[in-house]
Q: What sequence folds into this?
């Protein structure tokens, strides 16, 4: 893929995630009948108005970081039917709409990849590798052998097989295996004290991949959303504890994300002839990870972010006392300036100190 096409594909992918975030705010606003005056890509000042649908102007703006939705009366509770005049629970729903849309988008992407790639069948146990000079090699076990039973008991999981082998260490066992459509009986004796890194038999087990149903894929996709979210939230504690390096924890902007995106596309192109769907899904998976990261980041309780605005809602929801609007507007205005400064700094670091892709 040439560089121009690669850059365009990245801009489209990232732009789509940002668009979906703002569309989440937009659709929830419309759901609660709050007029939306502007839907902008990029941040002001405005470059061009694309078109207008109803009361909403769709625009392209100068600063190429993110996008925004401008509900009517966002910072002025005196405007009738505006966002600031709405019930606090309505405002909370509107603020959550963007991050939730990103998390949902990540879930859909993970769901598509997992459904396409399949899932391990835990009830079928295969020999993945036979280590040299081990009871398994002496007995004639081979990679891709399907292990059917041990001492007459059906093998229904790797855990069951491992536990049974441990219980019979030092005693002869009988394995029934399937190889190339034929059933073979193999007798061997598991070792009592195997070398470090080897089991009693000296084999590595695996489960074959089978087509995953949507019902099976849904919890696995939800698990990925949870894992990606908690990993991001735990970054500060992992950094402090030394579990990860500062380089691994450094934030990245569009330039850094492009480097990672480029690496994923290269991997997909290298694996284009592979029959493994996961080997050619690196880019799609990365887009899912970025989508979840956008959702979680926007929920952080920082000024100008959705999480910072939600923070100002909590006193009103909890004790029915509202933070004066002028104070909230001031904090968010300062927050936007600081956020833009941080984004420019991160982008500068991505350029002068590029991230290293392992």
A:
């Amino acid at each position: 893929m040439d560089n121009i096409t690669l850059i365009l594909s990245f801009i489209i992918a990232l732009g789509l995630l940002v668009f979906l975030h703002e569309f989440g705010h937009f659709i929830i606003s419309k759901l609660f009948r709050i007029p939306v005056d502007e839907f902008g890509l990029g941040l002001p000042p405005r470059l061009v108005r694309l078109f207008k649908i109803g009361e909403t102007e769709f625009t392209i703006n100068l600063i190429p970081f993110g996008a925004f939705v401008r509900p009517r009366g966002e910072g002025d509770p005196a405007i009738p039917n505006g966002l600031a005049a709405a019930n606090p629970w309505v405002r909370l729903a509107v603020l959550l709409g963007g991050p939730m849309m990103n998390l949902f988008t990540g879930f859909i992407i993970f769901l598509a990849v997992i459904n396409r790639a399949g899932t391990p069948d835990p009830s079928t146990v295969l020999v993945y590798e036979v280590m040299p000079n081990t009871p398994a090699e002496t007995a004639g076990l081979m990679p891709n052998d399907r292990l059917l039973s041990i001492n007459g008991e059906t093998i229904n999981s790797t855990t069951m097989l491992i536990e049974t082998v441990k219980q019979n260490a030092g005693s002869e066992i009988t394995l029934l295996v399937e190889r190339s459509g034929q059933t073979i009986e193999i007798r061997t004796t598991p070792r009592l004290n195997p070398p470090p890194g080897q089991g009693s038999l000296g084999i590595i087990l695996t489960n074959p991949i089978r087509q995953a149903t949507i019902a099976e894929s849904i919890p696995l996709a939800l698990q990925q959303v949870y894992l990606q979210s908690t990993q991001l939230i735990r970054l500060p504690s992992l950094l402090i504890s030394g579990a990860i390096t500062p380089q691994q924890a450094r934030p990245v902007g569009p330039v850094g994300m492009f480097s990672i995106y480029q690496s994923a596309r290269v991997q997909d192109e290298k694996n284009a002839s592979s029959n493994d769907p996961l080997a050619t899904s690196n880019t799609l998976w990365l887009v899912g990870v970025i989508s979840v990261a956008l959702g979680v980041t926007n929920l952080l309780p920082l000024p100008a972010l959705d999480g910072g605005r939600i923070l100002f809602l909590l006193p009103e929801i909890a004790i029915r006392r509202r933070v004066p609007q002028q104070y909230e507007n001031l904090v968010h205005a300062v927050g936007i300036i600081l956020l833009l400064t941080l984004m420019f700094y991160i982008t500068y670091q991505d350029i002068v100190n590029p991230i290293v892709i392992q």
